[in-house]
Amino acid sequence: MAEQDPSAAARFMDLQDPRYAYMFGFLQADGHLSQSTRDRGQLAVEINVRDIHILHAFQELTPYYSSITERVRSTNFSTRSHSAIWAVSSLEARSILNELGIPYGKKSRTIEPPRVDFSHPDYLRGIIDADGSLGWTAQGFPFLALTSASTAIAAYLCHYTKKITGTERTITRTKRDGVYNVCYYKETAQQLAAHLYYPGCLALDHKRANAESIAGWVRPADMRVAPPRRKWTPSEDHELLLLNNPAAAALALDRTPQSCAVRLWRLRTERVAKRPV
Questions:
Q1: Is 5 left (phi over 0), alpha (psi -120 to 50) or beta?
Q2: pLDDT-based confidence at 2, cuts 50/70/90?
Q3: How far apart are CA 126 and CA 106, in angstroms?
């Protein structure tokens, strides 16, 4: 695509525009920004060729020259991996993206939501399209999940989802990979997917189809709804440690003996920080 008029360049990456908010989230999660000597460098995104339509959308939204190429290669997961690559080398484009929050080089742990005004559902949909998944569990329940190495991104998803659905999550890194796996199921997954994948939005076709698919799930009449989890307070921790007896604590704190036993074990093994009252 050739250079467009200055007004088009001025609008590039206006994150209050839903299309650019989505594009920025996607690029933050799945793009790579590199640089070398004499201001040379490149922004590149490589995805499965089935999703090449989204790269054409990015090309249309970018008022700088960019290219889309394809390649077939062997990987650890497939003997024939067919991918599409979108790349833009413009220093001006790269500078804009870098200032908004896409660092050069490795970025998985350092990316965070933009510090300027932005369209929140579209930005988050871009993150989910790039690094998340949604669909059906093996048991046939709707789910929406994100895997991210960034504390800021994982925390943002939890914060935003609580605002939209009321469901609360806490995050911890996995011991094996050091990443966050944030998952939502059933009605929460439905509500969040419907909010993010609204009609006419820019999105990967297969994930939009999955969002539409899980919208039709209905909870079976005999499936109980689990009550919201009740957080332990510092005073409850203090009382539990003083009593040192799950059965007695259950009566005093109006909790189940099982939950008191698990909490006491965690406090004793320092899996939960002993907080001051």
A1: beta
A2: very low
A3: 19
Predicted local distance difference test score (pLDDT) of residue 25: 98
Rg of the chain's alpha carbons, rounded to an integer?
23
* Torsion on CA atoms 75, 77, 83, 85, rounded to nearest 10: -70
Query: Quick one: how far is CA 202 from the chain centroid?
Result: 16
CA dihedral 100, 202, 192, 158 (to 10 degrees): -10
Structure tokens at 48: 């499965």
Measured in whole angstroms, the distance separating CA 242 from the mean position of its chain's CA atoms is 40
Place of tokens 């939960």: 272
Place of tokens 């995050």: 171
CA distances from 98 to 34, 148, 187, 216 (A): 10, 20, 37, 40
- What is the token pair recorded at 162? 């609580």
Side-chain-side CA neighbours of 179 within 13 Å: the count stands at 12
DSSP letter at 179? -
The residues near 122 (Cβ < 8 Å, ≥ 6 apart) are 18, 19, 21, 22, 25, 201, 202
228-241 confidence digits (pLDDT tens): 677 888 989 999 99
Phi first, then psi, for residue 168 (nearest 5°) are -105, 140
Distance CA 55, CA 67 (A): 9
* DSSP β-bridge partners for residue 86: 45, 68
Question: Cα–Cα distance between 46 and 186 in angstroms, integer?
Answer: 31
| pLDDT the model gives residue 221 | 82
